[in-house]
Amino acid sequence: MSLKAHIAPLRWSVWRLATGARNITKTGQIGDGREAAAVAYVLENARAGDIDDVLATIDKFSYEKSLLINIGDEKGLLLDAAVRRADPALALELGTYCGYGALRIARAAPTAKVYSVELAEANAVNARRIWAHAGVADRVTCVVGTIGDGGRTLDALATEHGFDTGTLDFVFIDHDKKLYLADLQRILKRGWLHPGSIVVADNVKLPGAPTYRAYMRRQQGALWNTIEHKTHLEYQTLAPDLVLESEYLGPG
Ligand SMILES: C[S@@+](CC[C@H](N)C(=O)[O-])C[C@H]1O[C@@H](n2cnc3c(N)ncnc32)[C@H](O)[C@@H]1O
User: Fold this and answer.
1) pLDDT for res 252
2) 33 burial class (0-12, 13-18, 19+ CB within 10 angstroms)?
3) Is 218 helix (H, G, I), strand (E, B) or coil?
4) Among 35, 74, 234, 241, the one annotated catalytic
5) In terms of residue numbers, what domain contains 94?
6) Cβ(96) to ligand 1 under 6 A?
Protein backbone atom coordinates (compact mmCIF):
# COMPACT_ATOMS: atom_id res chain seq x y z
CA MET A 1 0.00 0.00 0.00
CA SER A 2 1.37 3.45 -0.86
CA LEU A 3 2.11 5.94 1.89
CA LYS A 4 -0.59 8.18 0.47
CA ALA A 5 -3.16 5.45 0.97
CA HIS A 6 -2.47 5.66 4.70
CA ILE A 7 -3.73 9.21 4.92
CA ALA A 8 -7.23 9.37 6.28
CA PRO A 9 -8.24 12.99 5.85
CA LEU A 10 -10.49 12.89 8.90
CA ARG A 11 -8.06 11.22 11.27
CA TRP A 12 -7.61 12.68 14.74
CA SER A 13 -4.31 14.47 14.12
CA VAL A 14 -5.96 16.41 11.26
CA TRP A 15 -8.84 17.54 13.49
CA ARG A 16 -6.32 18.42 16.18
CA LEU A 17 -4.51 20.49 13.56
CA ALA A 18 -7.69 22.50 12.96
CA THR A 19 -8.10 23.24 16.66
CA GLY A 20 -4.36 24.00 16.88
CA ALA A 21 -4.58 26.77 14.28
CA ARG A 22 -4.71 29.39 17.04
CA ASN A 23 -1.58 27.96 18.66
CA ILE A 24 0.32 27.97 15.39
CA THR A 25 0.12 31.72 14.96
CA LYS A 26 1.24 32.34 18.56
CA THR A 27 3.65 29.52 19.40
CA GLY A 28 4.53 28.09 15.98
CA GLN A 29 3.40 24.63 17.13
CA ILE A 30 0.11 22.70 17.07
CA GLY A 31 0.10 22.35 20.85
CA ASP A 32 0.03 18.58 21.33
CA GLY A 33 3.77 17.86 21.26
CA ARG A 34 3.77 16.38 17.74
CA GLU A 35 6.81 18.42 16.63
CA ALA A 36 9.01 17.10 19.47
CA ALA A 37 7.66 13.61 18.78
CA ALA A 38 8.67 13.99 15.12
CA VAL A 39 12.23 14.89 16.10
CA ALA A 40 12.47 11.87 18.42
CA TYR A 41 11.05 9.66 15.64
CA VAL A 42 13.62 10.93 13.12
CA LEU A 43 16.54 10.50 15.51
CA GLU A 44 15.42 6.96 16.26
CA ASN A 45 14.47 5.82 12.76
CA ALA A 46 16.37 7.77 10.09
CA ARG A 47 19.93 6.93 9.08
CA ALA A 48 22.28 9.66 10.33
CA GLY A 49 23.88 11.65 7.53
CA ASP A 50 21.32 10.49 4.97
CA ILE A 51 19.20 13.47 3.84
CA ASP A 52 16.89 11.30 1.72
CA ASP A 53 16.17 9.02 4.63
CA VAL A 54 15.59 11.90 7.06
CA LEU A 55 13.09 13.51 4.67
CA ALA A 56 11.35 10.18 3.98
CA THR A 57 11.14 9.53 7.73
CA ILE A 58 9.51 12.92 8.35
CA ASP A 59 7.00 12.17 5.57
CA LYS A 60 6.32 8.75 7.10
CA PHE A 61 5.73 10.36 10.52
CA SER A 62 3.32 12.80 8.92
CA TYR A 63 1.35 10.10 7.11
CA GLU A 64 1.33 7.50 9.87
CA LYS A 65 1.64 9.35 13.21
CA SER A 66 0.64 13.05 13.23
CA LEU A 67 0.20 15.47 10.39
CA LEU A 68 2.97 18.06 10.22
CA ILE A 69 2.64 21.34 8.35
CA ASN A 70 5.79 20.85 6.26
CA ILE A 71 5.58 21.56 2.54
CA GLY A 72 5.41 17.76 2.25
CA ASP A 73 6.33 15.27 -0.44
CA GLU A 74 4.02 16.33 -3.31
CA LYS A 75 4.62 20.10 -3.15
CA GLY A 76 8.21 19.38 -2.13
CA LEU A 77 8.89 18.20 -5.68
CA LEU A 78 7.86 21.66 -6.95
CA LEU A 79 10.16 23.26 -4.38
CA ASP A 80 13.04 20.98 -5.41
CA ALA A 81 12.62 21.83 -9.10
CA ALA A 82 12.50 25.58 -8.40
CA VAL A 83 15.65 25.34 -6.27
CA ARG A 84 17.45 23.48 -9.04
CA ARG A 85 16.32 26.16 -11.49
CA ALA A 86 17.75 28.92 -9.26
CA ASP A 87 20.93 26.91 -8.54
CA PRO A 88 21.45 29.05 -5.44
CA ALA A 89 24.61 29.83 -3.53
CA LEU A 90 22.44 31.61 -0.95
CA ALA A 91 18.84 30.66 -0.06
CA LEU A 92 16.38 32.00 2.50
CA GLU A 93 13.27 30.35 3.91
CA LEU A 94 10.60 32.17 5.94
CA GLY A 95 9.04 29.75 8.44
CA THR A 96 11.25 26.85 9.59
CA TYR A 97 8.84 24.68 11.59
CA CYS A 98 10.65 21.30 11.94
CA GLY A 99 13.31 22.03 9.33
CA TYR A 100 11.85 19.92 6.52
CA GLY A 101 11.62 22.64 3.83
CA ALA A 102 15.13 23.92 4.49
CA LEU A 103 16.42 20.36 4.32
CA ARG A 104 14.80 19.89 0.91
CA ILE A 105 16.42 23.13 -0.26
CA ALA A 106 19.80 21.97 1.05
CA ARG A 107 19.42 18.63 -0.76
CA ALA A 108 18.50 20.27 -4.08
CA ALA A 109 21.36 22.77 -3.77
CA PRO A 110 24.20 20.73 -2.30
CA THR A 111 26.68 23.59 -1.89
CA ALA A 112 24.25 26.39 -0.94
CA LYS A 113 24.14 28.21 2.36
CA VAL A 114 20.53 27.99 3.54
CA TYR A 115 19.03 30.36 6.12
CA SER A 116 15.61 29.94 7.66
CA VAL A 117 13.85 32.63 9.71
CA GLU A 118 11.49 31.33 12.41
CA LEU A 119 9.59 33.15 15.14
CA ALA A 120 9.48 30.25 17.62
CA GLU A 121 12.67 29.29 19.44
CA ALA A 122 11.24 25.80 20.13
CA ASN A 123 10.98 25.18 16.38
CA ALA A 124 14.54 26.38 15.85
CA VAL A 125 15.75 23.88 18.48
CA ASN A 126 13.84 21.03 16.81
CA ALA A 127 14.97 21.92 13.30
CA ARG A 128 18.63 22.17 14.31
CA ARG A 129 18.47 18.66 15.78
CA ILE A 130 17.02 17.34 12.52
CA TRP A 131 19.60 19.17 10.39
CA ALA A 132 22.42 17.87 12.61
CA HIS A 133 21.09 14.33 12.18
CA ALA A 134 20.93 14.81 8.41
CA GLY A 135 24.52 16.11 8.40
CA VAL A 136 23.83 19.60 7.05
CA ALA A 137 24.18 21.71 10.22
CA ASP A 138 27.31 23.39 8.84
CA ARG A 139 25.38 25.09 6.03
CA VAL A 140 21.75 25.30 7.20
CA THR A 141 21.07 27.96 9.84
CA CYS A 142 17.93 28.99 11.70
CA VAL A 143 17.67 32.65 12.66
CA VAL A 144 15.05 33.23 15.36
CA GLY A 145 13.04 36.36 14.63
CA THR A 146 10.74 37.81 11.98
CA ILE A 147 11.30 39.83 8.84
CA GLY A 148 8.91 42.47 10.24
CA ASP A 149 10.60 43.00 13.60
CA GLY A 150 11.77 46.51 12.82
CA GLY A 151 14.93 45.48 11.00
CA ARG A 152 16.54 43.39 13.75
CA THR A 153 16.41 40.08 11.84
CA LEU A 154 17.14 41.64 8.45
CA ASP A 155 20.15 43.43 9.99
CA ALA A 156 21.34 40.16 11.54
CA LEU A 157 21.16 38.47 8.12
CA ALA A 158 23.22 41.32 6.66
CA THR A 159 25.83 41.77 9.35
CA GLU A 160 26.20 38.24 10.71
CA HIS A 161 25.42 36.12 7.65
CA GLY A 162 26.64 38.09 4.64
CA PHE A 163 23.34 38.99 2.95
CA ASP A 164 24.18 41.86 0.60
CA THR A 165 23.10 43.53 -2.63
CA GLY A 166 22.23 40.95 -5.30
CA THR A 167 23.42 37.94 -3.27
CA LEU A 168 20.12 36.18 -2.59
CA ASP A 169 19.30 33.60 -5.25
CA PHE A 170 16.31 31.80 -3.78
CA VAL A 171 13.52 32.55 -1.28
CA PHE A 172 10.92 30.11 0.04
CA ILE A 173 7.98 31.91 1.69
CA ASP A 174 6.03 29.62 4.02
CA HIS A 175 5.28 31.46 7.27
CA ASP A 176 2.33 33.73 8.23
CA LYS A 177 0.12 33.82 5.12
CA LYS A 178 -0.91 37.44 5.84
CA LEU A 179 2.72 38.56 5.76
CA TYR A 180 3.86 37.03 2.47
CA LEU A 181 3.71 40.25 0.47
CA ALA A 182 4.85 42.65 3.21
CA ASP A 183 7.86 40.48 4.03
CA LEU A 184 8.78 39.99 0.38
CA GLN A 185 8.67 43.77 -0.04
CA ARG A 186 10.93 44.23 3.00
CA ILE A 187 13.42 41.84 1.40
CA LEU A 188 13.11 43.65 -1.95
CA LYS A 189 13.84 46.96 -0.21
CA ARG A 190 17.18 45.59 0.99
CA GLY A 191 18.19 44.97 -2.64
CA TRP A 192 19.29 41.40 -1.94
CA LEU A 193 17.49 39.86 -4.92
CA HIS A 194 18.90 39.98 -8.45
CA PRO A 195 17.28 39.41 -11.85
CA GLY A 196 16.86 35.64 -12.06
CA SER A 197 16.33 35.12 -8.31
CA ILE A 198 13.45 32.70 -7.70
CA VAL A 199 10.79 33.10 -5.02
CA VAL A 200 8.50 30.18 -4.15
CA ALA A 201 5.38 30.69 -2.02
CA ASP A 202 3.44 27.80 -0.46
CA ASN A 203 -0.24 27.65 0.60
CA VAL A 204 -1.32 30.42 -1.75
CA LYS A 205 -4.75 28.76 -2.08
CA LEU A 206 -5.04 27.07 1.33
CA PRO A 207 -5.04 28.66 3.88
CA GLY A 208 -4.50 31.30 1.18
CA ALA A 209 -2.42 34.38 0.44
CA PRO A 210 -4.77 36.35 -1.87
CA THR A 211 -2.95 39.67 -1.59
CA TYR A 212 0.33 38.05 -2.55
CA ARG A 213 -1.30 36.26 -5.50
CA ALA A 214 -2.95 39.46 -6.72
CA TYR A 215 0.36 41.32 -6.49
CA MET A 216 2.15 38.66 -8.55
CA ARG A 217 -0.64 38.80 -11.14
CA ARG A 218 -0.37 42.59 -11.38
CA GLN A 219 3.40 42.38 -11.74
CA GLN A 220 3.39 39.63 -14.36
CA GLY A 221 5.96 40.46 -17.02
CA ALA A 222 6.98 43.66 -15.20
CA LEU A 223 8.78 42.98 -11.91
CA TRP A 224 8.04 39.25 -11.79
CA ASN A 225 7.33 36.29 -14.00
CA THR A 226 5.14 33.82 -12.11
CA ILE A 227 4.06 30.24 -12.68
CA GLU A 228 1.08 29.08 -10.61
CA HIS A 229 1.43 25.37 -9.82
CA LYS A 230 -1.86 23.60 -9.07
CA THR A 231 -1.26 21.00 -6.39
CA HIS A 232 -2.68 19.69 -3.11
CA LEU A 233 -2.37 20.63 0.52
CA GLU A 234 0.39 18.65 2.23
CA TYR A 235 0.00 14.94 2.91
CA GLN A 236 -3.41 14.41 1.32
CA THR A 237 -5.04 14.51 -2.10
CA LEU A 238 -8.47 16.04 -1.44
CA ALA A 239 -7.82 19.71 -0.70
CA PRO A 240 -6.34 21.73 -3.58
CA ASP A 241 -3.52 24.20 -3.04
CA LEU A 242 -1.37 26.52 -5.14
CA VAL A 243 2.40 26.99 -5.09
CA LEU A 244 3.65 30.13 -6.82
CA GLU A 245 7.09 30.16 -8.43
CA SER A 246 8.18 33.68 -9.35
CA GLU A 247 11.28 34.80 -11.19
CA TYR A 248 12.46 38.28 -10.26
CA LEU A 249 12.92 40.36 -13.40
CA GLY A 250 14.37 43.38 -11.61
CA PRO A 251 13.06 46.94 -11.51
CA GLY A 252 13.61 47.25 -15.27
C1 LIG B 1 3.98 26.06 7.52
S2 LIG B 1 5.20 26.16 8.74
C3 LIG B 1 6.69 26.15 7.81
C4 LIG B 1 7.00 24.80 7.19
C5 LIG B 1 8.38 24.72 6.58
N6 LIG B 1 8.60 25.77 5.64
C7 LIG B 1 8.54 23.39 5.88
O8 LIG B 1 8.17 23.27 4.70
O9 LIG B 1 9.03 22.46 6.50
C10 LIG B 1 5.10 27.84 9.23
C11 LIG B 1 6.15 28.25 10.24
O12 LIG B 1 6.25 29.69 10.19
C13 LIG B 1 6.48 30.16 11.50
N14 LIG B 1 6.07 31.56 11.49
C15 LIG B 1 4.83 32.09 11.59
N16 LIG B 1 4.87 33.43 11.46
C17 LIG B 1 6.17 33.75 11.27
C18 LIG B 1 6.86 34.97 11.05
N19 LIG B 1 6.23 36.14 11.00
N20 LIG B 1 8.20 34.92 10.87
C21 LIG B 1 8.86 33.74 10.91
N22 LIG B 1 8.26 32.56 11.13
C23 LIG B 1 6.94 32.56 11.30
C24 LIG B 1 5.67 29.26 12.39
O25 LIG B 1 6.16 29.30 13.70
C26 LIG B 1 5.88 27.91 11.70
O27 LIG B 1 7.00 27.26 12.23
Assistant:
1) 67
2) exposed
3) helix
4) 234
5) 71-248
6) yes
8 Å CB contact between 36 and 66: no
Cβ 117 under 6 angstroms from ligand 1: yes
Q: pTM to 2 decimals?
A: 0.94
Domain-located, residue 137: yes
Evaluate whether residue 17 is within a structural domain.
no
CA of 133 to the centre of ligand 1 (A): 21
User: Is residue 75 within 6 Å of ligand 1 at its C-beta?
Assistant: no
Burial class of 86 by CB neighbour count within 10 A (0 to 12, 13 to 18, 19+): buried
174 catalytic? Reply is yes
- 238 belongs to a structural domain: yes
The answer to whether the CB of 174 is under 6 A from ligand 1 is: yes
Per-residue pLDDT, 1: 40
Residue 63 contacts residue 7 (beta carbons within 8 Å): yes
What is the mean pLDDT of the segment spanning 13-39? 79
70 among known catalytic residues: no
**pLDDT at site 236:** 84
60 annotated active-site: no
